[in-house]
């Protein structure tokens, strides 16, 4: 097995919340792998029979591969780890553990107890804490992303609300101008009256169109408000599911 050098990070397609949830579930599984590696190392060093030691060594090799593969995938695909400076201590702890377990399957039959206990302690203390910190980091970024989305939707809703109020005011003004034009048409009569009638008709048409547009925008505002509420609820459900999956 090769250690993960530099924790490569690459883009992942898909909904960011779904990606984060899958990532936390994947990282969550590595906790069990790390603990099993430590426990199996101790068994290899203390087994009473060759058969027991051989079985433990086989399982140890399997869990080393699982841990390496899962952590490599998580850190390669982890777009949620964009801020690498924040996870440098965790990166170092996991990289050190990966370096330690890289040759374990080849030496499992000749472990000494001190080495096995040291590895088990590393898995239980340093690596486990690093994994918890990584999960918390992903959750923090997921929460921040959800908050930003809700804030952007609220800003958009407020902008549309201002626009509908302005358009409603303009529509009322157009309606008043149309009424005034009708009055002037009745007073003027003749060619001037006909001109005022044409203007009045056009103004009424504009007022009607403006009212319809305002009604459509208000309907859209209602849809956006519903979508904003649904998005917030879905984000909360996703966060709860993510926390459960990573436990």
UniProtKB/TrEMBL annotation:
Biased composition (Polar residues): 238-247
Protein name: Methyl-accepting chemotaxis protein I
Residues passing through the membrane, by range: none
The species this protein was found in: Jannaschia seosinensis
Region described as Disordered: spans on this chain: 218-247
InterPro entries the UniProt entry points to: MCPsignal_dom
Ranges in coiled-coil conformation: none
Organism domain of life: Bacteria
Keywords: Transducer
Segments forming domain Methyl-accepting transducer: 148-221
PROSITE patterns for the chain: CHEMOTAXIS_TRANSDUC_2 (PS50111)
GO biological process, alphabetically ordered: signal transduction
One Pfam family per UniProt: MCPsignal
Any single Gene Ontology cellular-component annotation: membrane
